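Z., the sequence and structure:
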Amino acid sequence: MSNSAAAPKERISIDSLSGMMNAFGLHHAGKSLAELLQKAETEEMTYRDFLNAMLSCETKGRNERNRSRNYAMAHFPPNPKPLEEYNVSELESGITDSQNHMLRDLNWVDAHGDLIFVGPPGVGKTMLAVGLGVDAVNAGYTVMFESMESLMYLLDHEKTDRKAGFRMKNIRRADVVIVDEIGYTPITREQANAFYNFTSACYGKTSMVFTTNKKVSDWAEILGDRELTTALLDRILSRAKGYTLKGQSYRLNHPLEF
């Protein structure tokens, strides 16, 4: 038997490896494979360190993809301002810096708690609600934003309009639902009942954030039924924290930002 030299191993191309990774769903790591291999060689990584770097790359990519998808599905108002720009010192009263920071910890989401921001137009109710919603999306939660008017439309049409039905399906699955501008437009008795049924279905499963220009005690005027309102508030307030914001309009104080 001859002692011929062993044939050299065939070099596996990066494209081939990336293709196999993509076949197993590791799309983000496959896309960054060349960079990961170069880093592994430069830093003389162990097999374990390289595997950790590859899986971390994949996890980061998937999280960013999910965050982008959840942000798009939230339907936030255009160009929402980060909460870092909300200066509570401009308010006369209603919320403190420490309370704002505590809300940003998002413990209320994990506890399926609700929030109510009450105050006149322009004091930052929606800015606070949306800012917390953006924080929640960045933390991996699903968030849905609707004005009270648009929510009423969706509830009215979810059984007859495919798009409205699909939207309501996503809203009911969300971790956080923001209902903006309660009290700005009148609603019918049927809509009030639908709103009650919706919030009742969310109770204990979904965190809800409400902004309103009406005192909670005046919600019976909006819903048109005192008993229904009492039942609604009995559920909401058992898990809710309320903030009554007082002060001058933020928009009037910062006209160039709008």
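The CA atoms of residues 11 and 40 lie 17 Å apart. Strands lie at 114-118, 143-147, 176-182, 207-212, 240-244.

Let me know what you think.
H.
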